[in-house]
Amino acid sequence: MSRQQINLYRGAFRPQRQGVGLDRALWIWAATAVLLLGLGSWLAWTQRGLPTSQDDALRSTQAAQIQALKSELEQRRRGVDAELSRVRAIEQAIAKVQASLRGPAESASAPAYSAYFEALANQAHGALWITGFSVSPDGQSLELRGRALDAAAVPDYLARLNAEPVFRGRQFAQLNVTTVGSDGAVEAGAVLTEFVVRSGPPGTETKEAR
């Protein structure tokens, strides 16, 4: 019986270490670094894009609101234009009826009542107010009644009224001024001045403007 000796310390029989080579480790590290950099860049891009998207949404909402306001304003403007046209049509119809009642000769010479009322409204005064107005059928004579907090405001008001085309050239020849108030009010200075102004030939028949 023969014996055979086996050397177990030889390199072929030693346990082999299964490890990762240096080159392979470098490649893995580089790939991981690139992946991390790419992920960081993507996160930064998404974070920058989020506020931009919110701004775009806000601008879109504001634009829609502005457009809605413009549409509402346009509708209201059309409503005002329609109402103004209706009022003008009514005024024209009234003027035609008044013209037919006055006759052709008087219609040609007498201005429409609306012209007087418009002039009075244009020259509204803070210290006085009108309580009555009448004009003759031919438009030559008129009478104006009112009250004032200060009598000195009446001449200034008449001068301003003469600047209106319908009153231009008229001479307010008759002016009656009276004080309205009790004795106690006079002493306290709380009085009103009542005035009546007439223009045109005296004694001309007047007709109340309605």
UniProtKB/TrEMBL annotation:
A Pfam match: PilN
Transmembrane feature ranges: 26-45
Record keywords, A-Z: Membrane, Transmembrane, Transmembrane helix
Domain of life, source organism: Bacteria
Protein name: PilN domain-containing protein
The organism of origin for this protein: Ideonella alba
